[in-house]
Amino acid sequence: MSLFPILSFVVISFGVASVSAQICLNNGNFSSNSTFNANRRIILSFLPSNVTTQDGFYYNGSIGEGPNRVYARGMCIPGSTADDCSDCIKTASDGLVQSCPNQTEAYSWPGDPTLCLVSYSNTSFSGSVDSDGRVIFTNTGDITSNITKFTEIWEDLVVRMIDIASAPKDTPSSSNNYYTANIAALNPFQDIFALMQCTPDLSSGDCEYCLRQSARDYQSCCGKKQGGVVMQQSCFFRWDLYAYSKAFDNIMVASPPPMTIRSIPPSAGAPANQNDNRPSNSHDRNRRGISTGIVVAITVPTVVIVLILFSLRFVLCLRRTSLQRTKYEC
Ligand SMILES: *[C@@H]1O[C@H](CO)[C@@H](O)[C@H](O)[C@H]1NC(C)=O
Ligand SMILES: *[C@@H]1O[C@H](CO)[C@@H](O)[C@H](O)[C@H]1NC(C)=O
Ligand SMILES: *[C@@H]1O[C@H](CO)[C@@H](O)[C@H](O)[C@H]1NC(C)=O
Ligand SMILES: *[C@@H]1O[C@H](CO)[C@@H](O)[C@H](O)[C@H]1NC(C)=O
Ligand SMILES: *[C@@H]1O[C@H](CO)[C@@H](O)[C@H](O)[C@H]1NC(C)=O
Ligand SMILES: *[C@@H]1O[C@H](CO)[C@@H](O)[C@H](O)[C@H]1NC(C)=O
Ligand SMILES: *[C@@H]1O[C@H](CO)[C@@H](O)[C@H](O)[C@H]1NC(C)=O
Predict the structure, then answer these.
(1) First to last CA, the chain
(2) Which of 78, 142, 200, 322 is the most exposed place for a label (fewest CB within 10 A)?
(3) Which residue ranges does the record assign to the Gnk2-homologous domain (predicted)?
């Protein structure tokens, strides 16, 4: 278990359909009337236009001086329209201001109407993997078909996708943008829809490390579940048994494997093979070494999801703000 030096587990189930979470890291706080907060609001409010006016829909920038300097960045997946991208960045930025009232570092990966990332911090984005504040969401439902077969297909897809997403730019198999979405046929009735992306500041090796860590974390806790999301500040991974994003609209499904019988109960003795997803240098590069907490706020719709937080310690306070919204806040 040395792979999880900062693992502590909380599992919470609640009703959700699309995942839209804001992850607020308690690495420091500021008062609401501070210059830092004013700068944060300004740079986040500019993000929708700053991101969509950049080729490739990636923008990073900073505002302010000294301790009041705020770094922020925004990114949309390739293929997004400018309108979808702008809406997504705005949702994320507004959500962060609302859900993270006084945390100096936070991020969000909303999936609607496209997939995008917004994050801000009081330090510059380092260009290395920041594993602080990574979070897993998973469906509570289990895979009902042959789990051995499922794991084989899932691993094959995920390993191939990590290779494509993280391949060095300008190499033959490279996506050139640290992004890939793909579909694999699980059986004649079900497909696996997977999507992954790294931030462009990472090296190819760090992108691979980040995605492998996400896949490994997911598999070690939740390998029999019917779908999941792993969010980190530097990379994103999601898979599900339905097309949860416009990203899948133009992707052909590879020919289905031979006919299999559905609804075979999961075999209890089939451990997920974690070795395939383990990076050779599996050390945790925890930037500060002292993650003091995470606050996660989730906007909720309707399928059951389990949330797992990786952190030294964190506090969750449940507050229901409306029928549509459940908020964890402290
Ligand atoms: C960022 O905030 C943390 C926590 O308040 C603090 O320790 C650190 O010095 C700050 N960094 C900068 C560059 O201001
Ligand atoms: C946040 O502020 C509170 C008091 O307002 C303080 O007790 C706490 O230590 C601060 N947390 C961090 C991580 O700076
Ligand atoms: C940060 O916000 C929390 C709750 O929103 C509050 O209890 C805490 O005192 C705030 N800390 C600072 C330094 O404003
Ligand atoms: C913020 O407001 C508090 C009182 O509400 C005040 O003591 C403090 O000096 C203010 N800070 C700034 C930076 O204006
Ligand atoms: C970001 O957007 C603001 C407001 O639209 C604009 O003033 C600023 O020049 C933009 N910055 C960049 C680097 O495009
Ligand atoms: C934006 O990203 C580029 C490339 O990673 C980096 O060189 C630059 O310093 C970043 N700018 C800011 C303000 O963080
Ligand atoms: C499950 O799939 C594996 C690998 O495809 C196969 O060897 C095994 O016979 C299957 N089990 C059942 C019960 O169909």
Answers:
(1) 30
(2) 322
(3) 18-125, 131-244
**88 in a domain, yes or no?**
yes
Q: Pick the residue with more confidence: 256 or 231?
A: 231
Give the model confidence (pLDDT) of 183-216 as tens digits: 999 998 899 999 999 999 999 999 999 999 999 9
How many structural domains does the chain have?
1
Q: Which residues contact 287 (CB under 8 A, 6 or more apart)?
A: 126, 128, 130, 132
- Tell which wins on pLDDT, 319 or 248: 248
Question: Are 265 and 144 spatial neighbours (Cβ–Cβ below 8 Å)?
Answer: yes
Cα of 44 from ligand 3 centre, angstroms: 20
- The 10 Å Cβ neighbour count of residue 271 is 12
Residue 202 lies in a domain: yes
Q: What one-character DSSP code corresponds to residue 293?
A: -
Mean confidence (pLDDT) of the chain: 77
Nearest CA to ligand 4 atom 8: 33
